[in-house]
TrEMBL record:
Residue span, Transposase IS66 central domain: 180-338
Residue ranges occupied by any Transposase TnpC homeodomain domain in the UniProt entry: 30-107
Protein name per its UniProtKB record: Transposase
Domain Transposase IS66 zinc-finger binding per the UniProt entry, residue ranges: 117-160
NCBIfam families for this protein: transpos_IS66
Amino acid sequence: MDKTGLSPDVTAYISKLEAQVQEQSVRIDRLTDIVAKFQKTMYGQSSEKSKYVVSGENGLQIALFNEAEAEAKSKAPEPDKVAISGYTRKPKRTKEELAAELPVVEIFCELDKATLACNECGGTMRDLGKEMVREELEIIPAQVRLLRYVRHSYVCESCEKETGEATIVKAPTPAPVIKRSLASASTVAHVMYQKYVNGLPLYRQEKDWANHGIVLSRATLANWIIRSATDWLMPIGERMKSHLLAQPVVHADESVIQVLKEEGKKPSSESRMWVYCSGNTGTPPVVLFEYQPTRSGEHARRFLRGFQGYLQTDGYSGYDKVANVTRCGCWAHYPRNMIIREEFLKAA
């Protein structure tokens, strides 16, 4: 702005206004940046990128549940460099380290008796020694076989001769995993592992069984999973829950999960996988997952009914519904929230 010809008072006033405008512009930019961070925190995608492991002398601090997210972004530790003939390089993993726990089958390559004659003089050659040439990884494809239990019955010959009545005893047989079913323990474990660990849907497993010449519908596979979970896994889960609620510390968290076909909900809607974990004071440690269609704190209140120890969570208010517990904060969430609040206070 050209201030030529203006009085000193007017010039000073204009300079003061320009300084105020400049100061306010800087403040507006800072507040805009803070609001953007706040909006991202409130409405944007937010997953903890760091894995925190907090330990203390009393052993009440535990690791958080964001290990998968942290490991996905982390890099493998760099190995120490070793000196090789005047220069350094990173040591390579040896085959022995890669396959340290695998069983070893040695394949001996020997000459036939007919070829033991020396090509030079015709004399018989003797074994001079052996050397390891190479190593290979071999995979043995899965085999499916039918286990047929044949029970023997036994009769007492003495009783039969003396009394004319036969005393018959039948040999005991192992209890089936599912009555009147072809399912064995290994079969059910395989189906569950493929679905929940390898993420292989039942319709693909159905085709895989067909490739082995066995017709098993996806409905049958689903019933195997449901029956086995109900009869064998749920009692173990209830015992683990009883052990968890008796611990002095429980860590709780919930993560977003989508269910494609759920009655009364759109595939794009968000559900929750609730996670409850004991501290490192419990032996053995317990981690339990519970699916719920909502994030309501009622789920935590119902699950933790009877627990009266320390409950460590993030700042979600839904955990306030859990009664008779001592709430503990989470250091992983503390810095993020406090930095935003401090920036607001400084800018105010």
